[in-house]
Amino acid sequence: MSGGSDAAKAGIGLGSAIAVAISWSQNQSILWAIFHGFISWIYVIYHAFTRPGGLAG
């Protein structure tokens, strides 16, 4: 069972890292980057669907 929790922790960490990187590249604001790091995967999915060339095409 510990393998699943390790994978979940890695996914949360990766989602936060992606969200912070996207946020910084878009806003150049540490406060927004921290906020987006907390909501991580929600922001990553939002970004993918709302930007040209993202999942929405």
Task: Give the H and E element order.
Answer: HH
Mean pLDDT: 79
Put simply, the count of helices is: 2
The N- and C-terminal alpha carbons lie at a distance of 38 Å
Outline, from the CA principal axes? flat
Structural classification: mainly alpha
Rounded to an integer, what's the Rg over CA atoms? Answer: 13 Å
Count the strands? 0
Approximately how much beta-strand content do the residues carry?
Answer: under 5%
Give a quick account of the main beta sheet: strands, pairing sense, barrel closure.
none
**Low-confidence region ranges:** none
Number of domains: 1
Helix proportion range: over 70%
Keywords: Membrane, Transmembrane, Transmembrane helix
Transmembrane segments: 30-49
Task: Give the helix/strand layout.
Elements: H1 2-27, H2 30-50
Helix pairs in contact: 1-2
Structure report:
The chain crosses the membrane at residues 30-49. Keywords: Membrane, Transmembrane, Transmembrane helix. The chain has 57 residues and is mainly α. It has one domain. It has two helices and no strands. The protein has helices at residues 2-27, 30-50. α1 (2-27) packs across α2. The longest helix is centred in the N-terminal third of the chain and has 26 residues, at 2-27. The model has no long low-confidence stretch (mean pLDDT 79).
Keywords:
mainly alpha; flat; membrane; transmembrane helix; transmembrane
